[in-house]
Design a protein that fits this description.
Blueprint: E1 5-9, H1 16-30, E2 36-40, H2 46-52, E3 59-62, H3 79-84, E4 89-92, H4 95-101, H5 105-118, E5 121-126, H6 130-134, H7 138-150, E6 162-165, H8 179-197, H9 199-204, E7 206-210, H10 215-222, E8 230-232, H11 239-248
Parallel strand pairs: 1-2, 1-8, 2-3, 3-4, 4-5, 5-6, 6-7, 7-8
This protein binds phosphoenolpyruvate.
Length: 250
Amino acid sequence: MRKAIVAGNWKMHKTASEAVELVSELKPLLTGVEVETAICPPATSLQAVHAALAGSAIGLGVQNMHWEGEGAFTGELSAGMILAAGCSYVILGHSERRQYFGETDEWVNRKLISALEAGLRPIVCVGETLAEREAGRIEEVVLGQIGGALMGLEADSVTDVVWAYEPVWAIGTGVTATAAQAEEAHAMMRSFLAEQLGAEVAAGQRIQYGGSVKPDNAAELFSQDNIDGGLIGGAALAAESFAAIVKAAL
Ligand code: PEP
């Protein structure tokens, strides 16, 4: 039985003090709620948020990382730095990184290898654009991104990977995939994972849905057989809505 996981991707929102305020509102709302939950604030808030999360089961993560351990990579963070900042999760291959920062499947693969070696729990994002969907290329694009991320990795090293199916046309647009559209993509992903990694590993891997998840659509999405929680952008920026979405995964 897979446990749902709900993660908040705060993107480039919240100063450190705003982030602490949001955490202080969120903590009481999620006390005792037994859903694996993580928040991924901007790197400038990690230290303050880590301290603010003391005593809470909410996990901490980052939105990106570099695959190298250290070096001349201006603006980047390594897995070791992220761990030392108290993080357990890292979002990899988000469509905004692919679209605006040229992130490729090969980079996602290197980052995934580095994150797993460090003991971080990666959340690997995949998803098609509207043009790709309309051209009937969902399978080619989404499975290509998964295959690219897994290149050279053995099945037993990727059991902890969390996948996030995030159709690009649904991110930040207010247009959510219907539960049926999302479930169809998740089921396709899981059968591809079974081919790549074996049925047992694939059956245990969590696949989140992301793309305009809100309190009023979360329960229907999360109740689908192959949807194991969500990766939440805009609705993670307010305590009430994020807590309601987390509770929808119970
Ligand atoms: C995201 O950026 O991962 C996301 C799902 O955003 P939103 O919920 O705002 O669509």
